[in-house]
Design goal:
With about 90 residues, the chain is mainly α. Helix content is about 70%, strand content about 0%. The protein has one helix at about 1-60.
């Protein structure tokens, strides 16, 4: 009886240790990913600034462009009936 109790306590300690170690590994991988993402973001930032400058130059060249002209008109949805007992 006592022998089974000791075995169950040792098993619970092993399970707890495995859970703690696995959560530490997951936390480390998440930290590594966020560090890599922040490094990627800082590497992308200069290119994004250059792209924004290029877009500003393009918009200055096409001031005569009328913009988006839709080919269809959309009317109200009056034909849809809604429930009145809500």
């Amino acid at each position: 009886m006592i022998n089974n109790f000791i075995k169950s306590i040792l098993l619970m300690k092993r399970i707890t240790t495995l859970c703690v170690l696995s959560s530490l590994l997951v936390a480390q991988s998440v930290h590594a990913q966020t560090s890599a993402d922040s490094n990627d973001a800082s590497a992308v930032t200069p290119n994004a600034e250059q792209q924004a400058e290029t877009e500003n130059d393009d918009s200055a060249k096409t001031d005569n462009d009328p913009g988006f002209v839709p080919t269809e008109e959309i009317s109200e949805d009056l034909s849809v009936s809604f429930p009145t007992d809500i």
